[in-house]
Amino acid sequence: xxxxxxxxxxxxxxxxxxxxxxxxxxxxxxxxxxxxxxxxxxxxxxxxxxxxxxxxxxxxxxxxxxxxxxxxxxxxxxxxxxxxxxxxxxxxxxxxxxxxxxxxxxxxxxxxxxxxxxxxxxxxxxxxx
Length: 129
Hints:
Mean pLDDT: 94
Strand order of the largest sheet: 2-1-5-6
Shape: globular
């Protein structure tokens, strides 16, 4: 049930944006045991100046093709699973033509009751008694 938002410069083609979305989803399936059909993503391309990323941080250099990936998911994954996810995204992104250093990932964990998949229903909330 992850919700993925990928923000990219508008110089990235729609096809490359989709390839990165595929790369992120494949890593989620492999590392977080997300079902293959559990895919909710926003792929947003932004005009110059709309994305701000320092050219280098913590020894990692970023180019003009930087991708900001935010993944909102439920609590419960181990640190090992999170590390595997980050590594999987970087590997898959490189296969899709992105530099691994250009993929910044931000994981946001939230309680399962905070999700509704439509119809005004809190699908994962405990049933009221």
